[in-house]
Amino acid sequence: MTEPQTSSTRKTTRSPTTTTPPALPVSADWVRAVVTGAQHIPAPAGPGDYGSAAEVLRGIGLIQLDPLTRVSTAQRLTTLTRLPRSARAEDVDSSLWPAGAPLHGAPVSFEAFTKVACVFPIEDWPLLQLRRERVRETHALGLDPRMRAQIREVVAATENGAQIGAIEAAMGAARTTGWNWSQIKHAAELMVRTGELVITARNGIIRLFDLPERALPQEILEAAHLPPDQLRAALARRAAGTLAVMTVADFAHHYHLSAPDAARGIELAGLAPLQVQGWKDLAYCLPQLRDEAPGAGTSVVGGTSEPGTPEPGTGPAARSRLIGPFDPLLRDRGRARRIYDFDYTFEAYVPRTKRLYGHYVMAVLSGAEMVGRVDLQRVGEVLQINRIFPEPGHSTRSVTARARAGARTLGAQLGIEVELPGRPDDR
Known about the structure:
Blueprint: E1 24-26, H1 28-37, H2 53-60, E2 63-64, H3 74-81, H4 92-96, H5 101-104, E3 109-113, E4 117-121, H6 129-139, H7 145-156, H8 164-170, H9 183-194, E5 198-203, E6 206-210, H10 212-215, H11 218-223, H12 228-243, H13 248-255, H14 259-269, E7 272-276, E8 283-285, H15 287-291, E9 321-323, H16 333-340, E10 361-366, E11 369-379, E12 382-390, H17 396-414, E13 417-419
Parallel strand pairs: 1-7, 12-13
Antiparallel strand pairs: 2-4, 3-4, 5-6, 7-8, 9-10, 10-11, 11-12
């Protein structure tokens, strides 16, 4: 697997004055196939391109975090989708947050925010430097300097990183309970956003706050001080490598950037423009992907440089996977609607009587299409499917077979039985 390009690789930034090729017209089917293929979702019996959750994280660039566990945690659902059936859910967290990483200088990830909490590969720490600086300029003036200094002192005195409760106790503050945050908790979280503190490890589900100069490798710290335009270009290349095809708005949403910052990064990175069938805005991709597009020498159907890239269409039912609501394929609802014609609303916080589909609904991905959705939940040692909903144009029988296949794979990874609904009539 090719390592993602980050600022730490010190690649030369392509000059924005380089002549940009005209936008290449491409089909929506091709885009859907390459976007899905960039996720490297394996066949049920295949080994897959990723061998661990840490490898998945490096490959896809970020994983959104969410505490809901109706099926499993967001990070487990996202990584298990890209791991073989033999992968086990209990191995995910220890792969993303290895025990003892701060002590041994080998962190795998760090936690930060786009608009929401995410975990990123440790190599990408430099890529978010400009965002940390912007937060520092905007919000840090509201922090009491004495409180910041005290928090750093407590963290520095704790060899393996400090839990928020320990920081609060050492400073004589009230303990945070749920969303009732103490002033210390607010300050520590803001210090994570500014880069004064970093989270690279956990004790179970408890996050450990540490000092960047202690927790991060020296080369990662140094790379964060590269010229701003080089960091902007590297972040755009990183996004293009994981999203495959993206608009300025897609890039901005992915990392919570302003539209001007996203457009500038794309320009500096020298990404190739595409005119996607049915899209209002121009899209962009890495130049090598543009060279492989139909009309530029090769085609997805009948051969592609990316092994495992699905051909347009639904593919075999057995290869279907369930996609969680915070998965990179679904977390940007507008992008999912544009690429997959899949209109998704997360209804966990919608009153029961107003839900259209269910409390916790996952998409059914088959080949390069989202063919349906399934309302499911974990009840003890059983993954219970409540209802299956086909998308327009797909029969209930076909979608049910695919939803069942995806649920069986997920159930095997979770180590639990799957309770399937009765066989419906075809319609």
